[in-house]
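Troubleshooting log. The previous structure file for this entry was overwritten by mistake, so regenerating from the original sequence record. Sequence copied from the archived sheet and checked twice against the printout by T.R.
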Amino acid sequence: MTRFTTDPAVLVLEDGTRYAGHAYGARGTTLGEVVFATGMTGYQETLTDPSYAGQIVLQTAPHIGNTGMNAEDRESRRIWVAGYIVRDPSRVVSNWRAEESLDDALETDGIVGISGIDTRAVTRHIRSAGSMRGAIFSGDAAGIDPDEQVRLVREAPAMAGRSLSAEVSVAAAEVTPARGERIGALAVLDLGVKQATVDNLANRGFEVHVLPQDVTIEQLRAIDPVAVFYSNGPGDPAASADHVDLLRAVLDDRLPFFGICFGNQLLGRALGLGTYKLPFGHRGINQPVLDRQTGRVEITAHNHGFAVEAPLEGPFDSPHGYGRVEVSHVGLNDQTVEGLRALDLPAFSVQYHPEAAAGPHDANYLFDRFRDMVVAHLDSKKDSQ
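Regenerated output below.
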């Protein structure tokens, strides 16, 4: 049974807008970028996705928590959101796989939340004004002077310009054996990788080496990788110069490369393209994307507040000299670049999450496309020897 109290809580945005509700999860104060996620299921996967570090996440689905939480569905070692906003938390946990309530899990990981507010009103406000800094003040902190609360919010760091990779990455390399016929070692730069991604790659025959975000090109080469993968993760791609430099060295080595989400933005920057902050980002499991190679429209899972600047029509030359590049996937809601493909190198990326542990699975084929690219690259090297 989820515990409910009448403890007060208030959500305060940097423009001074306030929403009063009830404390949910841990009590205290939390600051971050307030964003909304549109998925109607998969809240546990959202909460444990490292890409949400530094963000106060609002669920647009009104009823949250009825299936509880369990260890098997966690995407990482903890809950990463900076705060959590829901309208109607479930009063009971009614799933045979549940091991604890969502409320208890939030308390255990120290996540301050708020419930009982009009989440539709907050969503509409963010869609009009854009994502902004905010704070949840719950319990005794809800009684702080309102002007002081706004001051604290406005002094919090903005997401633009923030590098958060070091906060979510592993401290030492972790290896998952290949399942089935082994292709070779795959170097995964952990910028906030999810367990479902590791599982999908291991299932395709890769021995998955999850590497710390500060790994050097010499350390990466030492595992003799057949390819390199950049994961999803939080933060501003413009603040990740070291990761871009590492990727340029990977491209110079002509190693096959696949990047998702943050990895897509970093491939863009490595190729010489710019990135920019979206007004309110794409978050949820119902984003339509056109795969230009197949002509299919996929429903995909997203969590990104930044995007790549690139010409949408036709191939173009990489400003950094990596040959021809094309936009491979386009978001149909706003024509955002959702994928890149290098035409003269074995490298491609997408802006969304093909592992989509909570669904949908329309884009899971991309792991097969990556495996096929790596196998073809290895075969070509054998033929040339």
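The chain has two domains: 8-155, 165-384. Archived copy saved in two places this time.
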